[in-house]
Amino acid sequence: MEEKSLSTADVNILMDVDFLVSVIVAIGEVANITGVPQRKIRYWDEKGIIEPVDKTSTYRQYDYLNIKKIVLIQELLDEGYTLDVSAKKVNERCIKVAEVFERLKASKS
Q: Which residues form the HTH merR-type domain (predicted)?
């Protein structure tokens, strides 16, 4: 199986901060674009693995970070990890990336 690499267009969308910050997607669309069923997304939400943008709303909507988590968790599940291990690994990776960018931000100040 050939490994896909990032194209310039892929990199450009990942660097479009205004777009990424504005991404708020309803659960049905999240399910459509990720291939993860709504029922599974709701379950992960109930377990606190992902969080809707507005917890007080009756409509579940998710931001870029949570969509990213959904995709990464599903990939790990597909590789055979349990949900708990997958969620923990994704959370640890997100924390590690955030720490790196915090250090970068501090070094630029």
A: 27-84
